[in-house]
Design goal:
Helix content is 28%, strand content 18%. By secondary structure, the chain is an alpha+beta fold. Strands 1-2-4-3 form a four-stranded antiparallel β-sheet, covered by helices on one side. A hairpin with a 5-residue loop joins strand 3 and strand 4. It is globular.
């Protein structure tokens, strides 16, 4: 996926998000879904697909044989070892949803980014943190480390 998206000119930050989304979707399919086809468990398959459509949207989807519950974000405790996958996807993606197939299969689809051709496609609109440059210590008025050390001596 990473190599195909690179060859397609997708920004590296968008590719990183897409790879994480795919990983989360595959983990959820293996943990919560049944395999595709007639296998009851174990050696069955799941299907993963991705594309940049004609409008420039990067879509990622994973299909499994369905499970006992419908995919939905969880509210895990702080100490829980899992349950954050769809919350991570919600934070990274522009949109996502679930499509039920007539045969009982379930596809979770994600629009990782609305327009990978946008020059700002590699920059999330709502970054978790903003990098701020601090002023040099010598530029902070009234702060003189040399005086503080002389008083100790």
């Amino acid at each position: 996926m990473r190599e195909q998206l690179r060859r397609g000119g997708v920004a590296e930050a968008v590719i990183d998000d897409a790879v994480l989304v795919l990983s989360e979707l595959l983990s959820n399919a293996c943990k919560h879904g049944r395999p595709l086809g007639d296998a009851l468990a174990g050696d069955g398959d799941v299907r993963a697909a991705w594309q940049v459509d004609a409008g420039g949207r990067l879509l990622v989807e994973v299909t499994d044989g369905g499970g006992p519950t419908r995919p939905a974000p969880a509210t895990p405790s702080v100490t829980a070892h899992g349950g954050r996958g769809l919350n991570i996807i919600t934070a990274l993606a522009d949109d996502w949803g679930v499509r039920d197939e007539a045969c009982g299969d379930v596809t979770v689809w994600v629009v990782v980014h609305d327009d990978v051709h946008d020059p700002d496609a590699g920059h999330r609109r709502d970054d978790f943190a903003t990098r701020v440059a601090a002023p040099a210590v010598s530029e902070i008025p009234g702060l003189d480390f040399a005086d503080a050390f002389e008083e100790l001596g």
